[in-house]
């Protein structure tokens, strides 16, 4: 299923309502000296990669409830991302997970992605599951395993993932390790960490010059006592040991309750070691639910640090923006459209923060004014700016409304049937 721009925004009333709301907001922001066109341009350029593993119904250990019309191949996954991108104009990239999404025909896949204006962002390795007829098992770890044979198998897999990424035009690999322990005494922490460091270096050594290695951390799950790469500090030291092409990747769901993630972001950008994000939201653990659905203000504070960092930290490279989600209840495409909307809206609010005024108030320890500056931006309804950015790119003013009025899911079920299952989580 392909969506053409002329199928969108056919409701003249929606257009005029938007125009009124946008003109009203734009004039009040311009009166405050805010460059509205610049903000709209930044929103238009802000592209978030869609995880190839989150286009079907996700599951938990307690069960999985299928969602009809799921993509059964990488081609159909790209088609689904093409649908989201046609509606939102902010999903112009895909992040593949290997071996769940190994292309059968690289030429055809690249041509399809190109025709849908989708780029290949980071490729993800998988040493948290054993593949059929694999010689060694990752049950007791991969890059940290006490067995050199197992570590070598995991290193070889990561090198293969880089080769697949090179073939597709990707420029980065994300390494997340489930490696850890569920019982005190099970692992020697130092041995596990030094094995991991040396294994990462063997992967780093084959990284093309213009590539990046993203090291993703996580405090727990699937193991419940320790995780080798448990927090930002461990990822940061491993990235520094590897070299200048290695960075820390922040998955929002990979933090213990009440962790000050925005301070982690500021620290990593200050050191030029923030590589990118896996956006999602969570109430308790690594819930991987819709961005902005639980803690939107926390995400705003993170984007406020990102905007400051993007303005003041030339030492930190351009960031990779990716969603990492799993959908147990909602239509995966609707959920991803909502996440993209939340990211754009929160980014727009952060762009409204008067960073100079804030810096001045901070210097004067005017605590009340600091809070007022942030909350004024956060409490501004910026949705007309996000809609304007989409409209300028011939996207839908209301992507979710368009998704439903175009009966996309019904069409996908007609094309694919009710029993297709997408690879992934
Ligand atoms: C681990 C993680 C990682 C992916 C996986 C799908 O929890 O966030 O980024 O490999 O989810
Ligand atoms: Mn992740």
TrEMBL record:
Instruction: Quote the protein name from its UniProt record.
Output: Sugar isomerase
GO MF? isomerase activity
Q: Manganese: is it a keyword of this entry?
A: yes
Spell out the SUPFAM superfamilies in the cross-references. Answer: Xylose isomerase-like
What Gene3D superfamilies does this protein map onto? Answer: Divalent-metal-dependent TIM barrel enzymes (3.20.20.150)
Which keywords does this chain's UniProt record carry? Answer: Isomerase, Manganese, Metal-binding
Q: InterPro entries from the xrefs?
A: L-rhamnose_isomerase, Xyl_isomerase-like_sf
Organism, scientific name: Galbibacter pacificus
Its domain of life reads Bacteria
């Amino acid at each position: 299923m392909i969506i053409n721009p002329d199928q969108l925004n056919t409701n003249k009333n929606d257009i005029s309502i938007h125009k009124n709301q946008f003109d009203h907001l734009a004039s009040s922001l311009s009166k405050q000296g805010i460059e509205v066109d610049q903000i709209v341009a930044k929103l238009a350029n802000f592209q978030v990669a869609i995880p190839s593993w989150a286009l079907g119904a996700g599951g938990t250990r307690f069960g999985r409830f299928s969602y009809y019309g799921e993509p059964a191949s990488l081609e159909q996954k790209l088609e689904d991302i093409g649908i989201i991108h046609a509606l939102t104009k902010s999903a112009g990239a895909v992040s593949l997970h290997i071996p769940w999404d190994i292309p059968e025909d690289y030429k055809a896949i690249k041509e399809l992605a190109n025709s849908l204006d989708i780029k290949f962002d980071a490729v993800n390795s998988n040493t948290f599951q054993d593949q059929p007829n694999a010689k060694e098992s990752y049950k007791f770890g991969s890059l940290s395993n006490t067995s050199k044979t197992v570590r070598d198998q995991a290193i070889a897999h990561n090198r293969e993932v880089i080769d697949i990424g090179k073939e597709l035009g990707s420029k980065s690999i994300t390494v997340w390790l489930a490696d850890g322990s569920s019982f005190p005494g099970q692992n020697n922490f130092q041995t596990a960490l030094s094995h991991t460091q040396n294994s990462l270096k063997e992967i780093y050594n084959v990284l093309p010059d213009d590539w990046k290695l993203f090291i993703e951390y996580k405090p727990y799950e699937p193991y419940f006592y320790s995780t080798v790469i448990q927090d930002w500090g461990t990822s940061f030291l491993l990235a520094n040991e590897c070299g200048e092409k290695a960075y820390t990747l922040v998955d929002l769901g990979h933090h213990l309750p009440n962790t000050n993630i925005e301070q982690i972001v500021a620290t990593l950008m200050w050191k030029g070691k923030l590589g990118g994000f896996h956006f999602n939201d969570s109430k308790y653990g690594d819930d991987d639910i819709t961005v902005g659905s639980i803690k939107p203000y926390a995400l705003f504070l993170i984007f406020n640090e990102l905007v400051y960092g993007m303005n003041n930290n030339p030492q930190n490279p351009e960031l990779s923006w990716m969603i990492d989600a799993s959908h147990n209840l909602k239509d995966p495409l609707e959920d991803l459209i909502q996440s993209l909307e939340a990211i754009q809206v929160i980014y727009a609010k952060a762009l409204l923060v008067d960073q100079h005024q804030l810096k001045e108030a901070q210097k004067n320890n005017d605590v009340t004014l600091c809070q007022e500056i942030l909350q004024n931006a956060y409490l501004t309804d910026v949705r007309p700016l996000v809609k304007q950015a989409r409209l300028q790119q011939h996207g839908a003013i209301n992507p979710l409304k368009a998704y439903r009025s175009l009966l996309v899911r019904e069409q996908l079920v007609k094309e694919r049937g009710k029993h297709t299952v997408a690879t992934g989580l």
